[in-house]
Amino acid sequence: MRLRNSFQEKHIQDFSKKFDKSLLSHISKQNSVDKRIKQSMCYFVKTGGKRVRPFLIITMGKLIGIKAQTLNDFSLAVECVHLHSLIHDDLPAMDNDDYRRGKLTVHKKFDEATAVLAGDMFQVLSVKTLVESKHLLPREKVEAIQMLSKANGLEGLIAGQSLDIYMKKKSSIKDIETMYLLKTGALFSLCFNLLLTVKKLNTQKRKELKVIGDTIGKIFQVTDDMLDRWGDEKKVGKKINKDSKKANIAYKLNRLDCLKYLHDIKNKNFKALQSFFSKDNNSLTYLSSLVDYIANRVK
To answer: What CATH number should be reported for the domain holding residue 181?
Structure first.
């Protein structure tokens, strides 16, 4: 894969437009006598999003020589899991958000029942995408579905969401980190782990890939926390300071300490990237500048 010197926000913006067309087409092809759920799913996709996870899958996958069609299936599956989590996260029973990215959340645009079912369908579609893939061998499908189920279940996102809801504000930073690793880190790690179903890497490279995924997940979540406390509500696109009573790194540390905490995680991530791309400075530069974008974003 030929890379430009470093990542620019325009790269992911251009990618997102193409990816969203692919995702909308994927949803529209699903057969159903009910139109409401598909409408609500398409509505949510059209509200926009950074699409960081599929971008990471496509970028890293191409760098290590995986075919584009396979990567597209992986990216669709992972983003469907992510969208399911966001729709449910916005519900009154969870975060109770009326807006996401400055637009009405699904339960406000439609109703709660539709939002629950749309989230459920995104979760079903994530597995269905892998099952019906024409670019994966049967063994690869089974392994990919096992990874996705683990990242989305009681060893990943669902457990993390539960901890996030019920964890006390006075919880230790270590406990909050565990919650982050499940709630956010599991899906980011999945972006890299799925690549291992079709690409053989040695034990050391696999370990480095895990560190890369885990640290990017933590960087993403800590940045989210900082935006909730110190972000610009208009740029963030939803209410801020809503997590002030929850277990949250940004509300346990002051801004300076938060920045230091984030800097330490970025250093760990860079060392893993540096080791993984030890003979490829172009890829190292591009991926590390992408991580900088994730850490410095304003929404």
So the answer is: 1.10.600.10
Domain that holds residue 85: 9-296
Residue 4 in any domain: the answer is no
Tell me: the pLDDT tens digits for 88-108?
A: 999 999 999 999 988 999 999
Separation of CA 290 from chain center: 14
The pTM score is 0.94
* Number of compact structural domains in the chain: 1
Please list the alpha-helical segments (H only) found in the chain. 9-28, 36-46, 52-63, 68-90, 106-109, 112-131, 138-152, 157-166, 173-180, 186-193, 203-230, 233-236, 255-276, 281-296
Q: Count of CB atoms within 10 A of residue 253's CB?
A: 19
Give a yes or no: residue 116 inside a domain. yes
Residue 3 lies in a domain: no
Report d(CA 209, CA 213) in Å as an integer. 6
Cα separations in angstroms, 162 against 28, 107, 121, 183, 239: 32, 20, 20, 9, 21
